[in-house]
Design a protein that fits this description.
alpha/beta; 3-stranded antiparallel sheet
Length: 214
C-alpha cells in the first residue's frame, strides 16, 4: 500500500499515521520527524529547517525532495509506505511523481483529513511534547497525570515553537495557499480520499480503512 496523508497542522495526521502503518505493516515516512531529529542533533540540515519552521514557513523543496527520495530507496519501502508531511506543494507533488516513475511505482491513495481552522488552532496550541522521550500530550484532550510532566519518563513537557498560536495561524495560512492545490491535483488523478477530521480518532481511522480495504 503506497499512500500519502494530507491535512492541515493539527488535523491529527500523526495519530492516524501510526494506526495506518500498523494496520498495513508499512513504514511511516514523516518529513517533520526527520527534520526534528536533525534539529535535535544540530546538523546543518536541522539548522536550515529550523529557521523556516520557527517562522511557520515551509522548508524549501530541494531539501525535502532529496530526503524523501533517499528514504524511498531504503529496503523497508519495497512493500509500500505512508508519506506524511510530503508533498506539501504542487511542485513537490509533481517531483514525487517523477521519483515514483523512475522507481516504476504508483500511488494507491491520497488520504485528505479535513478540519475547520478554529478546531485546528485549539488542537495545536494545547499540544505538549516530552523533552526526553518525545511523547505527546494535550492540555485539554489528553493531559498528563501531573501538569507538564511526562507520564512515561517523568521529564518536563514543553510547547514546540511551531505549536504556538501565532505560528500555527501562519502555518494554516501557508497550508491553504500552497498545499490545498494538491487536493485538486490528486482529485483529477482519481486518488483523493476525503475524510472528516472532526470525528473521533477511532471513527476517522475506521473511515480510512473502510475506504482502503484490506
Amino acid at each position: 500500500m503506497r499512500l500519502i496523508l494530507l491535512g492541515p497542522p493539527g488535523a491529527g495526521k500523526g495519530t492516524q499515521a501510526s494506526a495506518i502503518v500498523k494496520k498495513y505493516d508499512i513504514p511511516h515516512i514523516s518529513t517533520g520527524d526527520i527534520f526534528r531529529d536533525n534539529i535535535k542533533r544540530g546538523t546543518e540540515l536541522g539548522l536550515k529547517a529550523k529557521s523556516y519552521m520557527d517562522q511557520g514557513l515551509l522548508v524549501p523543496d530541494d531539501l525535502v525532495i532529496s530526503i524523501v527520495k533517499d528514504r524511498l530507496l531504503e529496503g523497508d519501502c519495497k512493500k509500500g509506505f505512508l508519506l506524511d508531511g510530503f508533498p506539501r506543494t504542487l511542485a513537490q507533488g509533481e517531483a514525487l511523481d517523477d521519483v515514483l516513475a523512475d522507481m516504476d511505482l504508483k500511488l494507491d491513495k491520497v488520504i485528505n483529513i479535513d478540519v475547520e481552522k478554529e478546531v485546528l488552532i485549539e488542537r495545536a496550541v494545547g499540544r505538549r511534547v516530552c523533552k526526553s522521550c518525545g511523547s505527546t500530550y494535550h492540555v485539554k484532550f489528553s493531559p498528563p497525570k501531573q501538569e507538564n510532566i511526562c507520564d512515561k519518563c517523568g521529564e518536563e513537557l514543553f510547547q514546540r515553537d511551531d505549536d504556538k498560536k501565532e505560528t500555527i495561524e501562519k502555518r494554516i495560512e501557508v497550508y491553504l495557499e500552497q498545499t490545498r492545490p494538491l487536493i485538486d491535483y490528486y482529485t483529477e488523478k482519481g486518488l483523493i480520499l476525503n475524510v472528516d477530521g472532526s470525528k473521533s480518532i477511532d471513527s476517522i481511522f475506521q473511515d480510512i480503512i473502510n475506504s482502503l480495504g484490506d
